[in-house]
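I have been asked to look over a protein record a colleague put together. The record follows directly below this note.
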Amino acid sequence: MSGEEILVCAVQLGENFCLYFAGLECDAFCKEKILQRVLRNVNSQLLVVRPDLNMAAFEDVTDQEMKSGKGMHFNIHYYKTTTPSAGMPVAFSVQVEDKSYYMCCEEECGKTIVRFREGEVPKEIPGESNNVIFFKKTFTSYSSRAFKFEYSLEQGMFLAFEEEGCLRKLILKKLSREDEVDETMKISF
């Protein structure tokens, strides 16, 4: 609790003696800023979105491929929040050719999976969690340039990669302990 004083004005005494106030923020995410970045895993591979294959994976990318930027230059949408202790709320979008895609998580066969859907990230998101919001957290206390991203709808579930053949697919992964360090969850800009 901070020592900051907030002036509030009671405006109405409602049914069942509920007191209503004016000037308070509701629990919602409001877009604050957007940064464009490439996302790298612990192996310095770039995250690349392939909408035609309905997947995203970390890949080795040449300088020429990086300049073309198809599916690898992410917009990181930062949101204001009334609950900052959870981490900085962010959403991800990416441009592939002339279409915009946003990252979200969906239930499929009893498992939560990462998807990229065509469309824009909303400017305002009601509530304290949403399937497009991730909480950006420092990866470790001694690693201020690397992050992990916790899914807002499932505490302890983080963006990570999983090797599948020669691919390192983007997935959601559960941490078994809060203090566990899992290198597959390490993402840097």
Notes: The mean pLDDT is 85.
